[in-house]
């Protein structure tokens, strides 16, 4: 079965999908994206993802490519055409096609690409069951990480360094020595007193949708939550650590820079929150 992509008004074979060479996404990374999880054929937390998409666009003074209802329809139609039941839908909006020049073009229309793919469920299940390792490294990104920009060069360099070090994820550390987040995940610890700790929202991190729902789930489970920055040192001596993202929800972290966290096995709070997520995430 061939995959299908939506590209600027057309559903095309994924292998043959293409965009113009002067699309500003291609030339300047002048665009934003969203990744929404799919469970049982339904979109997870779609409302929150689409709100964040609109916020990212507003912050960059870009327009929605179409009304929200039409975009929602395309997300579902792309899932349907790809027979995705458990997986994710990817949606990218750029400032459009125009002769290469830095200022915003006057007449360009935003470009929209939507793709869908299945999850590698076995890989995620293994990561959840065994936990993963992270390594820390300097955060070299720009100052507006709250915008879900397609400009991901520092993120991919960090992820590649992590993989070359045999780790699953990179935890990025700011100039003051505090963890911001992972290269494609938010970062969490459970401190000595059993409090759930994660960095507060602001321009230093992506405002993860999974992060948002985990905070709700934790509060309703009676877990004390503290939104504050933490250092790699504190994380290494924490009871637990984990990462969050729409693709896998929560993955326990068992080692940081080679040092065991707790007893180097997935933490109870992480697993409990993963389970509770199902009751809080909205499926539509
Ligand atoms: C840098 C970064 N932080 C955090 C996340 C997690 O965000 P979400 O929970 O919305 O998937 C992502 C996901 O792509 C990311 O790229």
How would you explain this protein's 3D organization?
With 284 residues, this protein is an alpha+beta fold. Helices cover 30% and strands 27% of the residues. It has eight helices and 15 strands. The strands form two sheets. Strands 7, 8, 9, 10, 11, 12, 13, 14 and 15 form a nine-stranded mixed beta sheet that branches. It has a six-stranded antiparallel beta sheet with strand order 2-1-6-5-3-4. It is globular, with a radius of gyration of 19 Å. It starts with a strand and ends with a helix. The mean pLDDT is 97.
Could you provide a short overview of the structure?
The chain is of the alpha+beta class. Helices cover 30% and strands 27% of the residues.
Defining traits:
single chain, D-amino Acid Aminotransferase, Chain A, domain 1, 2 domains, nine-stranded mixed beta sheet, six-stranded antiparallel beta sheet, 8 helices, 30% helix, globular, binds pyridoxal-5'-phosphate
């Amino acid at each position: 079965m061939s995959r299908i992509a939506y590209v600027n008004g057309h559903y095309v074979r994924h292998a043959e999908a293409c965009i113009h060479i002067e699309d500003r996404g291609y030339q300047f990374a002048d665009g934003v994206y969203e990744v929404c999880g799919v469970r049982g054929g339904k979109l997870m937390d779609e409302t929150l993802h689409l709100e964040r998409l609109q916020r990212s666009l507003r912050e960059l003074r870009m327009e929605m490519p179409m009304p929200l209802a039409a975009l929602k329809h395309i997300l579902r139609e792309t899932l349907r055409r790809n027979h995705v039941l458990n997986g994710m839908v990817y949606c990218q909006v750029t400032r459009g096609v125009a002769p290469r020049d830095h200022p915003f073009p006057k007449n360009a229309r935003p470009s929209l690409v939507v793709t869908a793919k299945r999850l590698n469920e076995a890989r995620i299940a293994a990561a959840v069951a065994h936990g993963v390792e992270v390594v820390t490294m300097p955060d070299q990104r720009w100052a507006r990480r709250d915008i879900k920009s397609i400009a991901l060069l520092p993120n991919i360099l960090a992820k590649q360094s992590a993989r070359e070090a045999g780790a699953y994820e990179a935890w990025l550390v700011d100039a003051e020595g505090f963890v911001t987040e992972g290269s494609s995940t938010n970062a969490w610890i459970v401190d000595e007193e059993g409090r759930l700790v994660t960095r507060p929202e602001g321009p230093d991190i992506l405002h993860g949708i999974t992060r948002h729902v985990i905070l709700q789930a934790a509060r309703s489970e009676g877990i004390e939550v503290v939104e504050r920055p933490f250092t790699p040192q504190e994380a290494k001596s924490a009871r637990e650590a984990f990462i969050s993202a729409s693709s896998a929800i929560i993955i326990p972290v068992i080692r940081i820079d080679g040092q065991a966290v707790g007893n180097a096995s997935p933490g109870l709070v992480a697993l409990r929150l993963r389970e509770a997520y199902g009751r809080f995430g909205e499926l539509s």
